[in-house]
Structure formats: C-alpha cells, structure tokens
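Hallway conversation turned thread

IA: we were arguing at lunch whether anyone had actually written out Fucose-binding protein end to end. Turns out nobody had. So, for the record, here is the sequence (151 residues) and right after it the structure tokens. Reply here if something looks off.
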Amino acid sequence: MLKNIDPALNADVLYALRSMGHGDTLVLTDTNFPSDAIARQTALGRLLRIDNVSAARAIKAILSVLPLDTPLQPSVGRMEIMGAPGEIPGVQGEVQAEIDKMEGKSTPMYGIERFAFYEQAKKAYCVITTGETRFYGCFLLTKGVIPPEAM
C-alpha cells in the first residue's frame, strides 16, 4: 500500500502509466473485449488488469495519476454501439461523469466505430481490462502532459 495512490492501481498498471509519453494511448476494456489478443499487438505487448471493478471505478483510479491530453483535441474515445452510434449506454454515462468530475469540467468523449476501435487499440501503448461486464465499456485515453510548476 502506498500513500495517495489509489489501491486499484497495481504495480504493473502504474509502471505502464508512468512509462507512457505525451500522445500515447491506453485502452480500457470491459470483460467482453478481446483484450489479450489486442494487447499482444500494443507497444507494451501484454495485458494489464484492474480486476473486480467497474469501468468508471477504473477511470477514477487511472485519472488520479494520468493527465489527459489538452482540450485542443479529444482525449477520451468510447466504442460506439453498432447501429446506434449516438446512443450513450449507462456504462459510458458513468465513465463520462467520472471524467468530468476528475477533470473539473465537461470533457466530452468522442465516438469510435466498433471495428475502427479494434484497429486503434492495436496501436495503443497498452490495454487494461477491468471487471466491467456491461457491453460497450471500452475506452481509449490519450495521455497529456503535466506542466512545470511556476517559478
């Protein structure tokens, strides 16, 4: 246990988040996503886990240490529902609320068609799977920067 580190973040996940650079992406997935097969094609090359928590809980833990990319470009993508790309299921609504809370402002997610999501996921730095059992609990996050402290 470490002080001020969310206990949902295990050593492997912390290592990956710290190793990522500005503009690198991570994929956060539900239990139905082909996480292991996709993870083998990422920069890290292996699957990471934040087990037994929802996607929203995992997002909260991740955003406690990971800066999102600037508001000049979208920084969080969501897998669109096939046949209903504009529909926001409960799991995505919960994640959106957590993102807004952690960022202190509205930070809308952008939609990614399901098969395009798979292709983008293969190019990510890493894949982190959660215990989320609801469909379409899959997200793509782009890492931002932490500015230097004022002198």
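OS: looked through it. The mean pLDDT is 95.
IA: good, adding that to the notes. Residues 32 and 108 are 24 Å apart (CA to CA).
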